[in-house]
């Protein structure tokens, strides 16, 4: 029996209610169902069922990112239901969910394959994955840090800053947007390298090809503080503490997030409606 995983934001009563209603509909349609709140699902390292056919998320983009971490490695499609504040990635609103599931059953949908990034700290085996971005950021008590960037083992630059991030096209409208990186169509195949609060006018975001191998070394040249630390986060969820001199290697992940899509122009609609693209706000 094919199984559907429903991940929901338990802090939103409406999301929990919709999750129960959707589970009942799917069970009546002959599917097995696994229900999980976001904190529970975020702790899983493997899919909860070997016959997983679809992952549904009910909440904001944070809930969807949790679902992507489960769906993408398993090659399973993901349907995001927007029940948050901004919801730039989610594809449908709650009232469209049952119709979307019926279209999924009949094959009347498109799949958007979204590039993901992966990070590994040099000397370690563990690999972290992100649909939006991988961020290296100084801790609140650390002084300004220095980030030495190499691409394909070739030196690019060293800049003093609070941090550095590597974003995917999907992530170009998330944290990367706040640090001045360009908006990139989510189905483009690129990586975006951007400094966070650099103390120089010469450090700017850079768009790189998907086969780029980015290495970022962290040091503290301003004070040579040996105990200074940085934090690596993937999609703002998984955190790892880094010491001075450590190097993080970032590349494209070997799999993609497969988003169910029912509206080819939805990205441009979101640019207009949620980022007010081209709007003259003084009129």
Description:
The longest helix is centred in the first third of the chain and has 16 residues. The protein is an alpha+beta fold. β10 and β11 form a beta hairpin. The protein folds into two domains: 120 residues, 3-Layer(aba) Sandwich (Rossmann fold); 139 residues, Sandwich (Tumour Suppressor Smad4), CATH 2.60.200.30. The strands form two sheets. Strands 5, 6, 7, 8, 9, 10, 11, 12, 13, 14 and 15 form an eleven-stranded antiparallel beta sheet that branches. A four-stranded parallel beta sheet has the order 2-1-3-4, with helices on both faces. It is built from six helices and 15 strands.
Protein topology:
Blueprint: E1 3-8, H1 13-28, E2 32-37, H2 38-42, E3 52-59, H3 61-74, E4 78-82, H4 97-106, E5 110-121, E6 128-130, E7 133-138, E8 145-151, E9 154-167, H5 175-178, E10 191-198, E11 206-208, E12 214-219, E13 229-234, E14 238-243, E15 247-261, H6 266-274
Parallel strand pairs: 1-2, 1-3, 3-4
Antiparallel strand pairs: 5-6, 5-15, 7-9, 7-13, 8-9, 8-12, 9-10, 10-11, 12-15, 13-14
In short:
The chain is α+β, with helices and mostly antiparallel strands and 283 residues long. The protein contains six helices and 15 strands.
